[in-house]
Amino acid sequence: MSLPSDHVLTEQGFGESQNGSVLLIGCGALAREILALKAANSWNHMVLRCLPAKLHLYPEKITPAVREAIHKGREDGFATIYILYADCGTGGHLDSLCAEEGVERIAGPHCYSFFDGNEAFAERADDEMRSFYLTDFLVKQFDAFVWRPMGLDRHPELRDMYFGNYEKLIYLAQTNNPELDAKAALCAERLGLVYERRSTGYGDLEISMKSLAVDPLSP
């Protein structure tokens, strides 16, 4: 199955159709990175089901959607279920759900943190408290997740009200893509912020997935 467009990942999510023993329930904004790690490491026992990335605009909807996906995964017979969501603005409700359902999730408050490395991100928190972050996916979907939801397409004069206390935009780059670099720099310009690029690769996402590398059903 080929990966759908970023628009489809935003609006509808994505699900692999093959069989496996480990179900990964993740955010559509992470689909490309998760599938790249699966392919690079031949983790064929993992099956990815991503919820629509737009749930991040409505964090209160994430936990119920993950609960439904967990129950569906169990109905489908998965031996292990792992949640590739950080807290993502759920205010601890996702952790409560994971405890209730007996599943684990990737550590971290949000994807910026685990892409950058949770420990490193925490150490830089004070120095970067005036920074706005983007990932590969959010650079590509900047208008859908930042510009339009904040009303800047209709009222660009609100920009300084929203971002006046920010100093720079930090692009946490998962890949080396000159086209994305240029687009990220343009995003910073549109927000009136100093641009900084930081190459993170997959960060703690890769480490977390490696913990599932052994197929629980292998002999």
SSE blueprint:
Elements (H helix, E strand, L loop, with lengths): L5 H6 L2 E2 L6 E6 L3 H11 L4 E6 L10 H14 L4 E5 L8 H9 L2 E2 L5 H6 L1 H7 L6 E4 L1 H5 L1 H6 L11 H5 L4 E6 L4 H14 L2 E6 L3 H8 L9
Parallel strand pairs: 2-3, 2-4, 4-5, 6-7, 7-8
Antiparallel strand pairs: 1-3
Protein model, in words:
Helix 3 packs parallel to helix 4. The model has no long low-confidence stretch (mean pLDDT 96). This protein is α/β, with parallel strands linked by helices. Strands 1-3-2-4-5 form a five-stranded mixed sheet, sandwiched between helices. Strands 6-7-8 form a three-stranded parallel sheet. The chain is globular and about 60 Å long. The chain has eleven helices and eight strands.
Labels describing this entry:
single chain; 11 helices; alpha/beta; 8 strands
Number of helices in the DSSP assignment: 11
Beta-strand residue fraction: 15-25%
Q: How many angstroms separate the termini?
A: 28 Å
CA radius of gyration: 18 Å
Order of helices and strands: HEEHEHEHEHHEHHHEHEH
Give the total of beta strands. Answer: 8
Q: What gross morphology would you assign?
A: globular
Mean pLDDT: 96
Helix content: 40-55%
Structural class: alpha/beta
Main pleated-sheet profile: 5 strands, mixed
- Major β-sheet strand ordering: 1-3-2-4-5
Low-confidence stretches: none
What would you say about this model in short?
The protein is an alpha/beta fold and 219 residues long.
